[in-house]
Amino acid sequence: SSFDVAVVGAGIVGLAAARELLQRHPSLALAVLEKEQEPAHHQSGHNSGVIHSGIYYTPGSLKAKLCVQGAALCYKYCDQKGIPYRQCGKLIVAVEQDEIPRLKALYERGLQNNVPGLKLIGAKEIQEKEPFCR
Known about the structure:
Oligomer: single chain
Low-confidence stretches: none
Helix content: 25-40%
Order of helices and strands: EHEHHH
Distance between the termini: 61 Å
Shape: elongated
Mean pLDDT: 92
């Protein structure tokens, strides 16, 4: 057999690249090569399953922009395809008093990166979300 394109790796990146290639060029003869027995069985199968928000990256950086945009696209794709997910959020906690300025700086960074759904909460709201968090 001969192919126009071969994508090496049937993880999330390889399969997403193959899908995009076929959507843009439906007549391509495309092969996906994978060393494991099943797709997403190597690195993609060992990740945390978290869709990152972009809160940690330098404001205006390509990483920040792609993270925020990618998260929105991922949720949209899941909605369109009926793929279930749980958007439970993330709790970033200042344990010591001297960590509060860093927490506020992280919050500001998230705002600058247009990360949706950010809010600062106090001890009472933290306890409602995570009763064992101190």
